[in-house]
Design goal:
Elements: E1 5-8, H1 14-25, E2 29-34, E3 47-50, H2 56-69, E4 73-78, H3 93-98, H4 105-126, E5 130-139, H5 155-175, E6 181-185, H6 203-215, E7 226-227
Parallel strand pairs: 1-2, 1-4, 2-3, 4-5, 5-6, 6-7
Helix pairs in contact: 1-6, 2-4, 4-5
Bound molecules: NADP nicotinamide-adenine-dinucleotide phosphate (NAP).
Residues 10, 12-16, 34-35, 51-54, 79-82, 114, 139, 141, 187, 189-190, 192-195, 199 line the site of NADP nicotinamide-adenine-dinucleotide phosphate.
C-alpha cells in the first residue's frame, strides 16, 4: 500500500507539532511547515518547508516548491493560526482587534489573512497535488461559531475563524463532486502557548483524535461540517 502523506502547517510547536508526532506514529509521511523550517523536529517530520502565512510571497514560493516536488497530499491540515492576544510587542494591538472602540481594520485584517485567506490560498494552490480522496482539515475554534457566540468583541480572531468556517463549508460543497473532503474542527481549549497552562486538554489528545478521525473515515463522512474532536457537530 502506498504511504499516505500528511501536510501540516505550523508544525513547529503546539497542536501542529503534536499532529506531526501522531501522524509519524502511524508511519505516514509527514511534511511540516514553519516560518523557519529549522524549527521543525526532524525526528517526526520527514520534510520541512519555510512558510510564513502572513506573506503572500512566502505562500507562493512554498506552493511552487511543493507542487513542483509533486508530493501527493492525502491529508492537508491547516493548523497554523494567529491570535492577536499573542502579539506581545504592541500592547494596544490586541485591543484594536477586540473592542469596537479601538477597532483597527488593518490589524483585524492580519487575523483574517493568516487564519482564513492564507489557508484557502493553500487549498487553491495545492489542488493539483491533492489526492483524489484528500481530506482538508481547517483548524478553527469555538470562537468562530456565530450561533455559539455569547460574549461580545474579539473581531480579529473570532471573525477570522467564522470566515474560515464559511470558507470550509463553501470549498467542501464546491469540491464534493471530486471526492475530496473539507472539514472545520473545533479542537477545544488546549495547553499550548495560545491556550495557556490552564487549558482543559493536551494537544497530544487532540492530535490523536484528529488522526483517528482520519484513519477511521469519520472526517470523510462529514464533508462540510464543523466538528468537535469526538466527531460531533459544533453549532455554526
Ligand atoms: N490553543 C487553543 O486552546 C486553541 C483553541 C481553539 C483553536 N485553536 C487553534 O488551533 C491551532 C493551533 O494553535 P496552537 O494552540 O497550537 O497555537 P500555538 O501553540 O500558539 O502555535 C501556533 C502555530 O501557528 C504558527 N503561526 C502563527 N502565525 C503564523 C504565520 N504568520 N505563518 C506561519 N505560521 C504561523 C506558529 O508559528 P511560530 O512558532 O512561528 O509563531 C505556531 O506554529 C490554531 O489554528 C488555533 O487558532 C487553538
Amino acid at each position: 500500500m502506498t504511504q499516505k502523506t500528511v501536510l501540516i502547517t505550523g508544525a513547529n510547536r503546539g497542536l501542529g507539532a503534536a499532529l506531526a508526532k501522531a501522524a509519524h506514529g502511524h508511519a505516514f509521511k509527514v511534511i511540516g511547515t514553519a516560518r523557519k523550517s529549522s524549527a521543525l523536529d526532524a525526528s517526526f517530520i520527514d520534510q520541512g518547508y519555510d512558510l510564513d502565512l502572513s506573506k503572500a510571497d512566502s505562500i507562493a514560493s512554498f506552493c511552487t516548491k511543493i507542487v513542483k516536488a509533486g508530493h501527493p497530499i492525502d491529508f492537508l491540515i491547516n493548523n497554523a493560526g494567529f491570535n492577536p492576544k499573542d502579539r506581545k510587542d504592541d500592547p494596544t494591538y490586541f485591543q484594536s482587534t477586540f473592542k469596537i472602540a479601538y477597532f483597527d481594520a488593518s490589524n483585524v485584517s492580519d487575523s483574517i489573512w493568516i487564519n482564513a485567506l492564507a489557508p484557502m490560498t493553500l487549498i487553491s494552490k495545492l489542488l493539483p497535488i491533492l489526492a483524489d480522496d484528500a481530506v482538508v482539515l481547517n483548524i478553527s475554534s469555538w470562537l468562530g461559531s456565530i450561533g455559539g457566540k455569547t460574549a461580545g468583541g474579539h473581531y480579529g480572531y473570532a471573525g477570522s475563524k467564522a470566515l474560515l468556517n464559511m470558507f470550509t463549508r463553501a470549498v467542501a460543497l464546491e469540491l464534493a463532486d471530486t471526492g475530496r473532503t473539507a472539514v472545520a474542527l473545533n479542537p477545544g481549549w488546549m495547553r499550548t502557548d495560545m491556550g495557556g497552562d490552564n487549558a482543559e486538554r493536551s494537544p497530544d489528545e487532540v492530535a490523536k483524535a484528529v488522526v483517528d478521525m482520519w484513519t477511521d473515515g469519520t472526517l470523510m463522512s462529514k464533508n462540510g461540517q464543523f466538528l468537535n474532536i469526538d466527531g460531533t457537530e459544533h453549532p455554526w
